[in-house]
Amino acid sequence: MSGYQNLSLFDIGLAAALIVVNGALSVALDLGLERKLFVAAIRTVVQLLLIGYVLGWVFAFNRWYVVLPLMALMTVIAGFAASDRGRRTYRGQRADSILSIWGSSWLIGAFGLFVVIRIHPWYEPQYAIPILGMILGNCLTGVSLGIERMTEELTSGRAAVEMSLALGASRWEAAQRPARQAVRAGMIPTLNQMAVVGLVSLPGMMTGQVLAGQSPLQAVRYQIVIMFLIAAGSALGVVGAVVLTYRRLFSRDHRFMASKLVERKARKRAA
Hints:
membrane, transmembrane
C-alpha cells in the first residue's frame, strides 16, 4: 500500500480556488453571498490551521490538565454556536444550549472512551479530542434545530397551547406536541446520515484512517462505533435542550410565558 500523500500549500490553494465557483454562482443568481463566502473561506483556513498547531502541541505535551481545558473550550464554543441560531430566542437559551450539549456529549464520549475503546491513559488526546469533537459537531446541529423548532411550534401554536391550559391541561400536556416535533426535527439529520453512510458518503474518520493506511475493515469498525456515539449524543442533547426550553417557557403553576419568546433581531435592537 502506498504511503500517506502530503499536501503542499500550493495544493491547498488549488482547492481553495474552487470557492470562486460558489462566488460566481452567487453573482449570477444575485444571491448576495459573496462576502459571506469569502469570510467563511478565510475562517475555515484560519481556524483549521490554528487547531492544527494547537493539537500538535497538545499531542506532544499529552497531559490531562491540557486536554480537559481544550475539550471544555470546544464544548462551550459548540453551545454558543447552537444558541445563536433560530429566529426566536429567550433569556437563558445560551445556558440551556451549553448545558444540554455538555451533559450529553461528555456522557456519551466517556462511554465510548472508557467502555468501548478503552484507551489508556484515559485522556489520550489522539482519541479523546477527535471523538468528542465529532459528537459535539452533530450534537450542536441537533440542539440548535430542536430549540428552534420548539420555539417556532410554541409561537405558531400559542392559541392551542393556551386553550389547553385554560381547559385544565397541565403544562406538559399542553407542550408535549411541540416538544415531540422539536425532538423529531433535531434527530432527523443524524438519522439521515446513518441511513446513507457507506452508500452515499464515506464519513471523515473512516476516510482519514483509510488515507493513513489503516485497514478498511478496521476503519469501518471505528466508524460504526462513532456513528452510534453520535446518534446517542445527539438524541440526549436534543431531548435535554427541549426539556430545558420547556421548563423556561412554562411556569410551575402551568402558565405559558409567551412573553419570554422574542425575535432575535428585535432583541439585538433592544440591546
